[in-house]
């Protein structure tokens, strides 16, 4: 948009706001932004995406500034080399866990640099609906959370809850606040008890019992039941471990959790709980000993660490486009296996000395990539629980392998049917063969070419498709990208800052 257009749109927004009788602060609260940001928009000093214009139009109930509803798409002009440097944003998965964990605390929680993504927005809608006051403090993404004396669970925004899988992590905190409660099925996935069973196994020792009927989980808590022995998780899942930790945090006693995930978001949760006075031994290992507190009432300030999956996304974009960029603030301890594998494949890069994240615990580095000629790895690529290759980073190796010489077997043994979405790379010129629901054979190198593709419904394969489009000659269109916005903040804009050419648009 030109400065002239921005000024004219800003005037329309200002007039529509005043017609509604709102202050800039009131509009900012509805949009989840700051008064200063609204002021810049109205003065024509702020670039606007069509998505933001649509949100403003909806908030002001004004057709003048609304450019139409419907899904958001991306138009990609590919074949462009990237350059420059970029900071990794805070962890999406840590952020949503900490929002859930704030329900353990009767005091004020301030979280620093929270990722402004759709998953976070949905959780904030749920929290606000049950009486929790949440306030964005500034443009940096600092977020203040103040719980009420009593939660109004009957007023829960069920539509927002069903659009986030993270709602399942309300179980651990709520079982200490309510004797009975209901939660909508998580993630819009009507799978009943099977969806929640690993969580139930972790939470039954605290007296939680759940019946799944009528599109809801009906929870009942028996206060006479308490952990009598170590809790052994049959599945070393991240959210399952987090639920068990949050249940143990408010249990007035010591809980031992075995086969716990030691992944990045679990560690951030433990560091936050430490500030609340909940001592946890064994952080970073698979055995956690939680010294719980029956009451937690602390005003606390915490900065979740940076997101290793976003760091891998940016690293992949650099590799596939043959670019030299610097990725700052990458959490190296959660990328070490990935980096070692990329070195084996021939990646030329350098890294800075390590330094600490704002939480004072997580180790960060700056990574600088250089154009490299890659070859297929000797063995198959498969994920493992931390400290192995992260399951969420596995799909990125499909597009990396497609850019390397030789055949690469990728084995996604964790998720049912996620591997099938990687075959969308074939529409862009890739050679990806689906061997079974969990395995694909990728042959490279690939001469990428533009295409129009419906966005895969899985987050990481969706971003993999976008990255391939950045490498493809010509123009590509990725349709209905809500799933990307669920997990990444302003990804297209940030890639554009490195030299990509990605345009957000709607069908008007």
TrEMBL record:
Domain HTH cro/C1-type: 13-67
UniProt-recorded Gene Ontology molecular function terms: DNA binding; UDP-N-acetylglucosamine 1-carboxyvinyltransferase activity
Function of the molecule: Cell wall formation. Adds enolpyruvyl to UDP-N-acetylglucosamine.
Pathway: Cell wall biogenesis; peptidoglycan biosynthesis
Catalytic activity: phosphoenolpyruvate + UDP-N-acetyl-alpha-D-glucosamine = UDP-N-acetyl-3-O-(1-carboxyvinyl)-alpha-D-glucosamine + phosphate
Protein name from the UniProt record: UDP-N-acetylglucosamine 1-carboxyvinyltransferase
Family matches, as CDD domains: HTH_XRE
Ranges in a coiled coil: none
Pfam families: EPSP_synthase, HTH_3
Native source organism of the sequence: Kribbella voronezhensis
